[in-house]
Design goal:
The complex is a heterodimer of chains A (about 200) and B (about 100). Chain A is mainly alpha-helical and about 200 residues long. Chain A is built from 9 helices and 2 strands; from the N terminus they run ααααββααααα. Chain B has one domain. The longest helix of chain B has 21 residues. The chains are: A mainly alpha (about 200), B mainly alpha (about 100).
Chain lengths: ~200, ~100
């Protein structure tokens, strides 16, 4: 767990036990929806996500008394949820950097790219309007090893910068960049039948 | 067989041209710059070299277009990043959290 999650924001003192209980319930109710959605995006499994969110709240409620307000409450909870989700993946040994070489770009011995001509590139709108193609997209994403998918998720979707991704995953910024590029390149390869219009909704 | 040999000669010539031409990069070097280019992190001179390669290389042009479309689709499917539409509050989970708090 990094420093930010270990040093939570400030809290009003002098509350009665009952007020405190109500505050806690409100904190949970106000935030559980988006935290669960975030955990599902990272873990891609509802049950695991619920467990991770419970862990995240346990951690947050323990640390709330010392919350110093160095970040917003939501930013703090966001980071705690990401960390709890990553801890789940580590515990299940699902963060290994498995090879994805078979999906990476190919080059010939003259350092020239091997890329069959693209006579058609499916418009994003067309793909996203089709339930069938959206499901196919989801399946392709699930084929990415977590070590790559998580980087894609945190950088491209959750808005973390390279340094923040490096920090939560405990890897170098250079490694984050390599994994992000490989994840995108591999996903492109996996999506080719859809992008070339060979699979239609 | 002749077609295959022609293709091979064309690729050899292309590789030679990209490698030797002033202010030009090979496709493998292009590959290493893709992320920085899209993040807007390339200095002006490197960006111009990258774009010069892009103009001359059909394969890298096609590749980059599909790569960018992939990012777009990935964002749409893996999102939403904004939390404006939270999931329904799962009462059993709220209860489990509040019960576990005291332990």
């Amino acid at each position: 767990m990094d420093n930010e999650t270990s040093n939570p924001p400030n809290r009003t003192s002098g509350q009665t036990g009952q007020d405190s209980d109500l505050d806690t319930e409100r904190l949970v109710r106000d935030n559980i929806g988006w935290m669960l959605a975030l955990a599902v995006r990272i873990l891609r499994d509802r049950q695991l996500a619920e467990d991770a969110v419970q862990e995240a709240f346990m951690h947050a409620l323990r640390g709330l008394a010392g919350f110093e307000g160095r970040s917003s409450l939501k930013t703090w909870l966001h980071r705690i949820t990401v960390n709890a989700s990553l801890t789940t993946l580590r515990r299940l040994k699902r963060l290994a950097e498995l090879p994805i070489d078979q999906y990476l770009p190919e080059f010939d011995r003259y350092a020239c790219r091997i890329e069959p001509p693209w006579t058609f590139l499916a418009p994003a709108q067309d793909v996203l309007e089709s339930e069938f193609l959206r499901a196919q997209l989801g399946e392709a994403i699930d084929k990415l090893p977590n070590a790559y998918r998580i980087v894609l998720q945190l950088r491209d979707i959750e808005g973390y910068d390279t340094g923040e991704v490096a920090s939560v995953l405990d890897i170098t910024e250079g490694n984050v960049k390599v994994r992000l590029h490989r994840a995108r390149a591999a996903l492109k390869k996996l999506l080719e039948p859809i992008l070339r219009g060979e699979v239609r909704g | 067989m002749t077609d295959q040999r022609n293709t091979s000669v064309r690729r050899w010539l292309k590789g030679l041209f990209l490698k030797r031409m002033h202010r030009m990069i090979t496709c493998t070097q292009f590959e290493a710059f893709v992320l920085s280019y899209l993040d807007g992190e390339l200095p002006a001179r490197q960006r111009s070299v990258f774009e010069w390669h892009l103009r001359l290389c059909r394969e890298c042009r096609d590749y980059l277009a599909a790569y960018k479309r992939t990012i777009e689709l990935g964002r749409a499917v893996l999102g939403p990043a904004d939390d404006s539409v939270p999931e329904d509050v799962p009462e059993d989970l709220v209860k489990a959290i509040l019960d576990a708090r005291g332990r």
